[in-house]
Amino acid sequence: MHALVLDLAVLWIAGLLGASVALVARRSSPAERILSLDTLVLVLVGLLAVFAADRRETYYLDAALVLALVAFAATLAAARYYDESHPS
Q: What domains lie within the chain, and their CATH numbers?
């Protein structure tokens, strides 16, 4: 049962990954692309967490944590850059 749930989770996340890539490709505004890329990275973090549960290895969780922190900092930097270059 555990393996079936993890396999279904990987398939579901793979579908979300494909949808996120399509979302990034379709967006034209830089602000929408920033949000789309952040969504894509969060899906990757989820995939790493599922791999950690499936393989029972903790280094996947370490990689997910580092990726989430780097993505958070990158999103903040991109949003700040976008805000400064496009004043209201």
A: 2-85 (1.10.287)
How many CB atoms within 10 Å of residue 9?
Answer: 17
- Residues 6+ away with beta carbon under 8 Å from 34: 75, 78, 79, 82
Q: How far apart are CA 43 and CA 2, in angstroms?
A: 21
> Helix, strand, coil proportions of the chain in percent (round to 5)?
90, 0, 10
pLDDT in tens, the chain (88 residues): 588 888 899 899 999 999 999 988 998 888 889 999 999 999 999 999 999 998 999 999 999 999 999 999 999 999 899 887 777 6
Q: Decide: 61 and 9 in contact? Cβ < 8 Å.
A: no
Quick check: pTM over 0.90? Answer: no
